[in-house]
Amino acid sequence: MLELLEKAAASAATDHPGDALAPLLAAWEKVRAPALADAIEAVSARVTAGRSPPAGKMLRERQAAWLELARAARPEDVGVLLKDFVAGLKSPVALERITALATFPPDPRIARALADLAAVPPFQAGTTRPFWKKLFPMLVDHADPRTLERLAPLSADYVRLIGAETMGTFMKGALDAALNKLRERFPGGSTPALPPEAEALVASLLALAPARSPVVGESTRTEAEFLRAIAADPGDDAPRLVYADWLLEKGDPRGDFIALQYRRHRGEALTPKDQKREADLVAKHRATWLGPVYTLLKPGWKSCRFERGFLAVALVTGVNQLAIDAAAGHPVWSTVEEMTLWDLARRDYACLFEGAAFAALRVLRGATPAMVAKLANGPAAATIEELQVWLPADRQATLDALERLPRLRALTLPSAYSHALQGWAGPERFGPGQGAAAYRWLWSLPLVQRLERLRTAVEHGLLGGVLADILGTSFPRTIELDIPLGGYATYGRLTASCGADGRRTAVTLHRDASYSLPPATLAALDEALGRFPGAALQTV
Asked: Which of 61, 242, 490, 519 is 20 to 30 A (C-alpha) from 354?
């Protein structure tokens, strides 16, 4: 044991520190001490600094190159193989990779990478079972005591965190089986200790840090510092352009991507070749650039967009609660200007809005009152202009939070919860034709008076009375009323807008081609319009 560590320490001090990994891994076979695992990772980080994962224009080329490097089974390549090694991949491709890693001897770097996947699962569809059937036993094969510390606390709530009952139950069973075997290997959560004479050698290896390549003009700055500067002022072009120059000097393709996007931002028309280059760079590197945030964006990626080199428009579809929690507070969110949240019934996104993550957010769709309260206490309070709020159950708390968004100009209260909106006016439940008054408090709110657009929902039986009320108001300038039919179906939408004279005379009924409003509702609309000279209904 001591001889192996002495050999590793001597190799780490040479121009070929990668030679230290083989004796360190041999020592790991003998003693699974966490300090030794940390030393292996420290040496590996130094060896892999500046190295990129196997490249290729197409996925099949990158996969072939990755598998070829894995077949060489060199300890110094493991760190490179594990860089974002399943990010953005489908489960069959990811399965090929972990199957290749299964041929490697026990390695704490592989154990950590596998535990990271179990802690934040990138897949949860039933078709991905082969991937998980391969992964969980590998946690036992690589037997790192740190895996127990990382994964055991998740076990009790794993099914809920996964968010899919059948698959969650299967994955919890596989996780628990692996944890039980690790507990047998490390009873009572005990961690093997190093012999006293080995501790000083391991400490010297732990002191190793990745070598930094000097860059002309910015030799003392790290990438994290550039990203912090961008996050601190996402509207400023200067930090982004300085970062792009730094990346270009290093030969990093993201520098090329930022430069391309700034040409577009300045109004320059990109050639077809440049457009293809831009799209190829995003497709190849988005998982690396976005880190844990990409897991939340992948299902709806076609609705996401980079601008000025950074994520600006995001459609978030939480794969599972673990992935949402892992993305909370990530600096990637700092440049997002427009965000839509899906699957609110099964996911809790409130943790994303803790702290100062969102500094550029202008539009948020799919928020809950809890999210709005967090936004109102963060930097987004000064930037939010448009908001869609779901489940408005707590009237006063929600209104208080909305009042703290001084730039808010457009508010949507979705149609699926129009009854909850009525509930804000009091505990009563109103029947058809009786509840128009339940909305009057809404039109008179100071908050609503400063809006440019308000969108909510009104049952067709209340539509005539509500229209009569809003025709007598001047603010907000535009009011849109969804007319729900049931489920996700609607009769259409009624829009009432003010003209230059401040009178709300332009009323448009946007009909759903599949459904027609009842004659009684149309008659009530005509009656409401008849009370206001000049008001007219246009149907489209």
From this structure: 242
In angstroms, the CA 136 to CA 179 distance is 9
Helix (H, G, I), strand (E, B) or coil at 334: helix
What tokens appear for 146 in the block?
């740190």
Residues 488-509 pLDDT 10s: 678 889 999 998 888 888 899 9
SS3 label, residue 412? strand
Tokens representing 315 are 């459609």
CA distance 5 to 2: 5
For residue 128, give the DSSP letter. G
110 CB-contact burial (10 Å; exposed 0-12 / middle 13-18 / buried 19+): buried
Cα separation, 13 vs 353, in Å, equals 45
pLDDT above 50: residue 87:
yes
Per-residue pLDDT band for 32 (boundaries 50, 70, 90) equals very high
List of residues 6+ apart from 164 with CB closer than 8 A? 124, 320
Report helix, strand or coil for 361.
coil
0.85 cut: is pTM over it?
no
Instruction: Decide the pairing of beta strands 363-367 and 338-342.
Output: parallel
DSSP class of residue 174 equals H
Contacts of residue 506, defined as CB under 8 A and 6 or more positions apart, other chains included, come to 496, 497, 498, 499, 536, 538
**HEC per residue, 284-325:** HHHHHHHCCHHHHHHHHHHHCEEECCEEEEEEEECCCHHHHH
SS3 content of the chain, % helix, strand, coil (to 5): 55, 10, 30
Residues in the chain: 540
First and final C-alpha spacing in the chain: 82
**How far apart, in whole angstroms, are the C-alpha atoms of residue 257 and residue 281?**
7
Q: Helix or strand or coil: residue 343?
A: coil
**Peptide bond connecting 476 to the previous residue in cis, omega within 30 degrees of 0:** yes
| Residue closest to 53 by CA, chosen among 84, 74, 76, 75 | 84
